[in-house]
């Protein structure tokens, strides 16, 4: 890949990571600083080329309205699998991630309830909005105004919310407020 497409790939990756981490895309200045471009017009040029290739959607009337398209996510995924050692996309595994829409949201995990299955404190969870679950689903649930993640099991007249952490006890509740089902995970660093 030549230097310009490589820079565009870096920009695409940064936009995607920033949107996953914070829920909104980076500014032009943040993109330039991240990929080593001092000129905002150069960043705009790369963004225009990414949009023409169908890798991002950009709203000209809003300064921060940039979204990575499914094609862009697919390209990042291909690069992750084909070029893991170049340091460019080493911490992004996108095969099960999908774009933001009204049915999906990102939630940062702030507990160790799912530690034994590899969902760590501060991981970002991709959650499909739904109010029901089936046995074994990993769900986001709100209990007493606190949001947490458990494995769901219906048992008679109540539900058992099972943590995947041997140091924690299950939560028994009649009608949990289910916010959604976890369908993916993102971690912006690897220990």
Account of the protein in words:
Helix 1 (3-22) crosses helix 2 (28-35). Strand 5 and strand 6 form a beta hairpin. By secondary structure, the protein is an alpha+beta fold. It is built from 4 helices and 9 strands; from the N terminus they run H-H-H-E-E-H-E-E-E-E-E-E-E. The strands form 2 sheets. Strands 3-4-9-5-6-7-8 form a 7-stranded antiparallel beta sheet, with no helix packed on it. The chain is 28% helix and 27% strand. The relative contact order is 0.13. It folds into 2 domains: 3-86, Winged helix-like DNA-binding domain superfamily/Winged helix DNA-binding domain (Arc Repressor Mutant, subunit A, Orthogonal Bundle); 104-186, Umud Fragment, subunit A, CATH 2.10.109.
Question: What labels would you give this structure?
Answer:
single chain; 191 residues; alpha+beta; Arc Repressor Mutant, subunit A; Umud Fragment, subunit A; 2 domains; seven-stranded antiparallel beta sheet; two-stranded antiparallel ribbon; 4 helices; 28% helix; 27% strand
